[in-house]
Specification:
The structure holds two protein chains of two kinds. By secondary structure, chain A is mainly alpha-helical. Chain A contains 14 helices and no strands. By secondary structure, chain B is α/β, with parallel strands linked by helices. Chain B has two domains: about 120 residues, Response regulator (Rossmann fold, 3-Layer(aba) Sandwich); about 190 residues, Rossmann fold. Classes of the chains: A mainly alpha, B alpha/beta. The interface between A and B is large, with 45 and 45 residues.
Chain lengths: ~300, ~350
């Protein structure tokens, strides 16, 4: 396999959980709610997905269970900020810490378990196709699943009537009310769908990518996803390129090391965070705008002052 | 009334005596899960050994304690609950353990792999590089591309020792063999471990070793890509029998039990304890089916030579990465330089800092 395609496959595999989480949080924030609990939802999804795969022997059930677990935890955020009116930032952090604690506590018994995971294609007939065979064979089901969900979400959100209402809930709750629709209902949907995606992202990490569970295995990728939503300017289409930039930076940092390049691995390790930050700065300069933040979100930050 | 107080005092005194007789309490702090199939499970296996072999001892543990101020809290909680010996098992616990050792002179602290001592803080470690040299022989025989990979957490002396030992072992049977090193920058980041393995395989590596807290993600990734693996910390053969060559694992139990007994007897003194293959603290893992009989015999012969003191992993000639002669023929790298290992031997591709 060519060096470039190898780099791209490592990048895509690395990016996929972050891609799914960024997509989910984008959908949440477009209804005018911010959920900082992504990391906690991912962890719960990773633990539940691994447990379900272990018990059932079916990794597809694992992905489903992970997604549902993420959604279940996001209900707490919905309850706290939509029903009880708790500050969204505080509520999201509560979800983060609860998810971390719950998954660490109940995940203890999962640590030494082995799962079968998806069938690897790296030694199948597909791997022998010319040029792209090896590349395609290395990608795993969650990459293809993420691709399908990404297409569906972007089209639904930006090209359909329902998507318009979804976005309106984030831009002007008052306008939505005048149309006789309840912003709270759409925000509930936004939070739950976000929970579903982030739970799936966690399960992709444990069930598909690493086939292992350890406490805090997301290692900050959930928080990163919240940041990447801003880099992607709340645009679901951009969730892929932005996550891929992160994945490429990570893959490149590892590749440069394996070539024996004389740079500190710690400096190289900052690349996946530094590069998106630079992209953010450049894109803001280029657009000469304050950003594309949904109007209702700015209220969240005003509320903090 | 005074009679009542007297009996109460008696009861208290009895209670204290009873708890003193109940044996010593020993606390263990782990940076990860105690069943991680790696570093922490090896430590916990030592704890279970102590529990089984030292009469009357009571052990307790805390898992997933990060290498920051939380470990101070964890150890203080254990001391508050009556622990007289604390095994601070993770590398990064050292500064916190040293600090607490000053505050609690009556408690004995044991740190794994530390380079510093205090009057009531000792260290224990073992020369795993001996087992890594032997694993390197298996890797050197198994590789078809002549390229071995290594997934490392951090560029610290202990890990540089392992990598060099694998390279030297591999080159003893396969002079052209190289070891390519990739650091993840974390003891515990499974996703990065997997990305590191994928990166290495894309470069033509067909045997991989690792030194991160849990070898499991690396082994799972090696299984996915169909390459061979040498293990570390713990015997994880069951995760991937077809690709398992061998590896090194820790056997801390006897050292830990000796520490507990000497503290009980009042004969403990602060010192660095070093185990090795001969003492049995570092062990060669069982061979997988991929290792042929001839290679097995060669490795076992060399193991015996190391145990008998006839073979030293760091015997010259040893050349550094850039070809500089580090140890001339007939010489041996001094122990101090082994402990503070700061260079890679020839044939290692990677950075030492």
């Amino acid at each position: 396999m060519s060096a470039m395609l190898g780099l791209l496959s490592v990048a895509l595999l690395t990016a996929t959980p972050v891609w799914l989480a960024t997509l989910g949080e984008t959908l949440t924030q477009r209804t005018g709610v911010i959920n900082l609990g992504v990391e906690g939802q991912m962890l719960v999804g990773a633990a539940a997905g691994f447990a379900a795969t272990y018990l059932s022997g079916n990794p597809w059930l694992g992905l489903l269970a992970g997604a549902l677990a993420g959604m279940a935890l996001s209900c707490l955020h919905a309850l706290l900020c939509l029903v009880l009116g708790v500050n969204q930032i505080a509520s999201g952090l509560a979800v983060l810490f609860l998810g971390n604690g719950l998954s660490s506590f109940y995940g203890t018994t999962l640590v030494d378990k082995q799962i079968t995971g998806f069938h690897s294609l790296t030694h199948s007939a597909a791997a022998r196709w010319p040029v792209v065979g090896q590349f395609i064979a290395e990608l795993t089901p969650s990459v293809y699943l993420a691709f399908a969900l990404w297409l569906a979400c972007a089209v639904l959100l930006l090209r359909t009537q329902a998507g318009l209402v979804w976005r309106a809930s984030g831009e002007s709750a008052d306008a939505l009310r005048m149309l006789g629709k309840s912003p709270a209902r759409w925000r509930l949907a936004g939070i739950l769908v976000g929970g579903l995606f982030t739970g799936l992202a966690g399960a992709a990490l444990s069930v598909d990518y690493t086939r292992t569970w350890v406490a805090q295995m997301t290692a900050g990728r959930g928080l990163l996803a919240v940041g990447l939503v801003i880099v992607a300017r709340w645009n679901p289409w951009l969730a892929l390129p932005v996550a891929l930039i992160y994945g490429l930076a990570e893959a490149l940092a590892l590749r440069l090391q394996s070539l024996g390049m004389n740079v500190s691995p710690y400096l190289l390790g900052t690349l996946p965070y530094l590069v998106p930050l630079i992209v953010l700065l450049l894109s803001y300069r280029a657009s000469r705008r304050r950003g594309a933040m949904p109007q209702e979100l700015s209220g969240v930050f005003r509320g903090m002052a | 009334m005074s009679k009542y107080f007297l009996s109460l005092l008696c009861a208290l005194a009895l209670g204290v005596a009873a708890s003193a007789q109940a044996g010593i309490k020993v606390g263990y702090v782990y940076v990860g899960a105690k069943s991680d199939g790696g570093y922490n499970q090896a430590q916990d296996t030592g704890r279970l050994y102590v529990q089984k072999t030292v009469p009357g001892v009571a052990t307790n543990f805390l898992e997933n304690v990060p290498e920051n101020a939380q470990v101070t809290q964890a150890m203080e909680r254990m001391i508050g609950a009556g622990d007289k010996i604390i095994f601070a098992t993770s590398y990064g616990y050292l500064p916190y353990a040293l600090e607490l050792a000053k505050k609690y002179p009556q408690v004995t602290f044991m740190h794994c792999g530390g380079a510093k001592l205090a009057p009531n803080l000792g260290t224990y470690f073992a020369d795993m590089f001996e087992a890594m040299y032997l694993s390197g022989i298996a890797a050197g025989k198994a590789t078809k591309t002549g390229r071995i990979g290594f997934v490392a957490a951090h560029p610290i002396p202990q890990i540089l020792q392992d990598i060099n030992a694998i390279a030297l072992g591999a080159q003893s049977v396969n002079p052209k063999a190289t070891v390519t090193v990739v650091y993840t920058g974390a003891w515990n980041d499974p996703a990065k471990d997997v990305a590191a393995v994928n990166t290495l395989v894309d470069q033509g590596i067909d045997v991989v070793g690792m030194h991160v807290d849990s070898p499991v993600p690396v082994i799972e990734a090696a299984k996915k890509r169909g390459i061979k693996v040498i293990g570390y910390h713990f015997n994880d053969e069951s995760f991937y029998p077809q690709g398992w060559l061998t590896g090194g694992y820790w056997n801390w139990g006897p050292i830990m039990a000796a520490v507990v007994r000497s503290v009980e007897a009042g004969t403990w003194k602060s010192q660095p304890i070093y185990g090795n293959l001969k003492s049995g603290a570092a062990k060669l893992a069982p061979f997988g089916p991929a290792v042929d009989a001839q290679t097995r015999k060669l490795i076992l012969d060399k193991e015996k030579a190391i145990e008998d003191g006839k073979l030293n992993v760091w015997a010259g000639p040893i050349y550094a990465q850039d070809g500089k002669l580090m140890v001339p023929k007939g010489g041996v790298l001094p122990r101090g330089q082994v402990d503070a290992m700061s260079f890679f031997v020839k044939g290692v591709i990677g950075n030492t800092q």
